Structures
1.
Amino acid sequence: MRAFYSGQFVLPLPPGHRFPMSRYAMLRDRLQEQVPAVEMDPAPRATDDELALAHTPEWIAAVSEGRVSPQAMREIGFPWSEAMVERSRRSTGATIAACRAAFADGVSANMAGGTHHAYADKGSGFCVFNDAAVAARLMQAEQARAGRLLKVAMIDLDVHQGNGTACIFQSDPSVFTLSVHGQKNFPFRKEASDLDVELPDGCGDADYLAALEHALDELDRRFSPGLVIYLAGADPFERDRLGRLKLSFDGLEARDRRVFDWTWQRRIPTAFAMAGGYASDIAETVQVQLGTFRVALDYWRRWQNAAR
């Protein structure tokens, strides 16, 4: 199973910054040690033309040239740097590459990504460019050149609402945005996804999985995608610093298995990204992510067996 990484581009963050940059290198090391069937490739660099499928030219230029206002950079939460620009482009390129690989192999991964708080004209919440939005639009454009209409479903299970994604696709019937998130968590001003499922603080495994089942049934009733982009956030975990939900390791594995089973049963190519994860012990976030990769690998193998 192919996975694409941009972790070689490390942001120069000040001491004590709350973003857990080290988790990307840790995930790569653990995958090499424990899940060697995952083939890891460096992410390509998203071009200006690709980014412009979901972002304004003014925003792309401001980010690239270091002309973002201090207030806008505070909303992102990172200091501007050339490494930030390059990593943001590569993380977007990783989701593009994962989508292309998913069409070939059934399942593929971005080892970062899930930057769903980025709007067309601004960043927010550690998100500069919206990798899933860019990738969805590019896949649609590539399929259109072959005379095919591609419908894309975003299954966003990060604990925070995918507000940027919802806004970008607000009036686009070819993309379905599903977000299952904490009701009282960031962002505090929510956008309207095609389907929002808001969960109370302290929601545990059983209630979460029941809500997810209902959401997938509703998605199935309303939309028939040809591609799924799955944001497999680790932040619903019970010991996540920013999550406020109470999912266990087993509950998160069951969540992942339900999503991949849903797409497998319908033979929908699926690209997934890591999105958020902020456990006090970073190793616990990485353990959640490893579980996602193990489940995904199981379903990738089903695709390969079915192709024989």
2.
Amino acid sequence: MSAATTRSRTPDRLCAEAVDLAREAAEEAAFPGVVGEHVTLFAEGDRVVTHLFEAKEPGYRGWRWAVTVARASRAKVVTLDEVCLLPGPDSLQAPEWVPWSERLRPGDMGPGDLLPTEAEDLRLEPGWTGEDAPPPNSLLSEEMERQAARSQAVESRALADVAEAEDAELTAPIAATPPVRGSIASVAEELGMRRARVLSRYGLHLAADRWDEEYGANTPMAQAAPATCVSCAFLVPVSGSLGQAFGICANEFGPADGHVVSLSYGCGGHSEAAVMPKTPKPVGPVHDSMAVDAFPLRPDPEGGSVPDAADPASEDLGHS
């Protein structure tokens, strides 16, 4: 180790006394009124001392102005070295910077935003490469197709010779067309694999864990539900391996309408939870048009409630 590194870290006396010089430099870098009291000083090296002043700027709570002064060897004049604003032990600082790929959360994307994926994304794996060239020994290879075409042409010419001998009208040669064969592209498109990359098993498990955490059996809604989604009529099944554990809710009044839900999820909107009985229809009026009611043309004199003879008691009261 050199002699300079083994020397004491005791602050230089002249540099430690240059508090006014350090304050003037700090106020010149900031502006008067925001540089507070002198806090402390410490030695940066031989004849190099840093003075710390309180910072009173709004938004910089706990920060300090650091002014470094120095003195040349055998010199009595202290010169200014550096002025900067440094955080203190209890200062308010911004959180540690996190890359956008790590701080992005579901729902942060808006209209027009683009979310690039990494080339080695663990959630994806290679799908259809775009090459429609089958192996040489495959039935779809070009060599096999040429052989099939030649065989077809020979067979067509033989049939044409036989037909010409039997009937002159059938002398026209038969075009040798190879059989129509399916391509890899059509098969990949039918299977839903005609993409550069597809979801890997790891990405599939991540998605299933998210969906089960949000709409799964352990949610408070599912715990209080009368039945699970597997028996609900509003559950729209999905294809593939996900259909064994998930579906899509189609109940517009349910809490998970339009979301992927676990088959073990449930809510109060289950189709069979509370079936309302049908409203009974009132019985219509019954008309008996087969019977005949007899109405006499003249009333029966014996059937009335008013007697024909006058009552003497009623006459005294003025009744007719």
3.
Amino acid sequence: MSPENWYLTEDLDDFLARAGDFLSAQPALHTVLLTTTDALRRRGRDFYGPEDPVFGVLEGNGDGRVRAALLHTPPFPAHVTALTPVAADALADRLAELDHTVSGISGPRETAEAVAAAWRRRTGVTGTVRQQQRLYRLAELTVPEPRPEGRARIADDGDRALLERWYGEFAQAVGNGAGRDPAAWADARIAHGGVTLWETPDGTPVSLAGVTPETAGQVRVAPVYTPAGLRGRGYAGAATAEVSRAARAAGTAEILLFTDLANPTSNALYQLIGYRPVADFAVWRFGADGPKKTDGGKRP
């Protein structure tokens, strides 16, 4: 396995032509690449930031078989599918050879660790684990009891300012303050009915649960957010259960979500609703100054 086995491109269509079948074959494990490339196709190449995204495919030795895929939407860390240690070394060499700067790496836990170690050997830049995550899949849905008073409804144009504010608060809480523009995020989610609000009987929104558009038979619940002063009342669980129910009613095969393993409360809640572990992931930051403080938010 050599660095040349990694094919890098800025052409989304080229990437999907090469890696689309590979990604769709395991939609749960590849949910980040599937949902991100879908968002780029729907909303444009600059949806995640002004820098051009970069895509990568690890191809076999002349057999045309795809063995792994990479996606980098700056300023976010690059995300990669599962790799062997040899393939991780080849990726670090390829990125360094092309002088492609990455702020970090995310992916299956062992893979992210291997790439971070290879990057340090190749460039001298040390990485720091910023978040340990667990991917869950919905099994049998259970609505948490007692259910808080109120109801769920789909966010619409009248909620745009609220969504922008809450998404900004969420991004700051999980350390993505330099990430996606809250206005663009709100517009994209409203366009496909991708945010459910839980509101009290008097119509006051108190929590939100988002969901990505369906692609390759899967959706991902993200983000889930309740303002700090309203937590501990069951609002997030009710909103998450409702978006999960709606996705299942729509016939979606795989309903997924990520949790921060540093937050036992959210992990316990989602298992209570019926989510079961699939795999562990990690996010590394290169040149970072220490672990991220977390309040349990999930990836955007």
4.
Amino acid sequence: MDYDSGTFSHHPHQPVQPTDRPSKIQDVARAAGVSAMTVSRAINHPERLNPETLQRVRDAIASMRYVPNALASGLRLSRARLVAALLPTLVGPVFQELIQSLDHALNQHGYQLMIGRTGYDAAQEADLIRAIIQRRPDGIVMIGMAASEEGRALLQASRIPVVETWDLTDTAIDMLVGFSHSAIGQAVAAHFIAKGHRQLGMVSGDDARARVRVAAYAQAAQAAGLPEVTVAYTPAPSTLGGGRRGLAEILAQRPEVTAVFCSSDTLALGALVEAQHQGLRVPEDLAVVGLGDQEFAKDTAPPLTTVRLDGTRIGQLAADMIVARTLDQPIDAQRVDIGFSITQRSSG
């Protein structure tokens, strides 16, 4: 329903917290100078109000970021025992480990997991956040940072416990479990440089987190005096075909490239296929490093060197934070950097 229809160190910080309780229908009524029943009617039966009153109520709703509670009723239990997870995509394996861990940990405490897809789109994310808040879950887990200002504002105003994951920021909405994408880019560049590579490329998704890795990777190469990194972007979510096309694009521009970082293991698998298609030996002619350490990574030919991200620990910690908050128990840390590692195999 929309408004009109009704392993690295980190610096501790204090998460951004809303200053007031979430707005209630009575607050909107006072702001609009009408009764609570009129606000309810504006949300559920706008055709019953005159245009001037309806607009006044809608303006109050928008200014206070009021989200109606879709579960409000005398039959509602004191707790929904429901946690929502918002993912950018439901396809591809990159978030699978995190979601499985989160679901398992929540189930152990009697909570159910609801999953929504944001589609790497800020407007779609804000609409989804608004719909989920209406259902008043016990907690919300974001895979990545909230991308839209509207979505962030809605989450802050809701007072629902929120855990952002898969990234680090000094402006978290509430709680945070993640790792530094900038540090990953720097670490992979250092890995290649230590092995003697001077001509670097990168096949990357075009989402915001991937672009942070690209920038850090390129900056690290530049700082080491290497030529400019050649980057091929592919639409998110990643596909094997995107990895093939990305590597082909890089080699067409700069055949001298000897090392390629791919922003997911799926892209890296595509790069391995394309390298074989072009008659290149891996790693002798071309080193390839992926990201995610997916189950298939150890079984590629050759086995894939990749950045290991501990999705299991992220899911467990996110669940622990949500459950502790709902039970008014203390939380050890509201911001956790779990770091990452490079799993060395044969491809790079």
